[in-house]
């Protein structure tokens, strides 16, 4: 999208997530709250209920934060169905150079959810998006630490949360909610920096890119 003065003042972000039982939805709201706090205009979009308007919002936003519950050690089938629906956009470069980041939630403390964050980041890379990492040191990793630390499960690639499988959606760990709130704030801040930079120095293709495959 064009980056005029108002875009720089308020980056537009979408939070595109899938949650089967509401836990990841709580985290999506936390990401949105952090981004809003940092001055972004935010839309939260459940990817299993996409409308045409939702696709338009994704296409026009400055950045997209992807979130998925971890199912079978990866993104959920519903998230992957959404990802596969973006194939044409990927070929056409519609999301190219947008900012991206990711979060996930699992039942196990690990639960193999690093693999989910890797999948989300690869998805973003296939769209030629700029991945923003979590930007926090590891929490709960010393005798002085506790489960109440920010980034208590010590992820770097994105935000990794854990919720007991029998918990309600309002019982997501407060430290994980704060960690996702931080991620939203960070993504909004980086997006604003990028928008300001683009106003001064527009995007350009490298000389070598002209001979590269188009997608
Ligand atoms: C089909 C299915 C597969 C799951 N696979 C994993 C898994 O690989 N690792 C894990 O730790 N938890 C796994 N879980 C538990 C969920 O990650 C956990 O319940 C999570 O909080 C669900 O998030 P949601 O409420 O946003 O759907 C699985 C749950 C389901 C329903």
TrEMBL record:
One of its GO terms (cellular component) is membrane. Residues 13-190 form the Flavodoxin-like domain. InterPro entries: Flavodoxin/NO_synth, Flavoprotein-like_sf. GO terms for molecular function: FMN binding; NAD(P)H dehydrogenase (quinone) activity. PROSITE patterns: FLAVODOXIN_LIKE. SUPFAM superfamilies: Flavoproteins (SSF52218). PANTHER family: FLAVODOXIN-RELATED PROTEIN WRBA-RELATED, FLAVOPROTEIN-LIKE PROTEIN YCP4-RELATED. This is FMN reductase. It comes from Mycobacterium gallinarum.
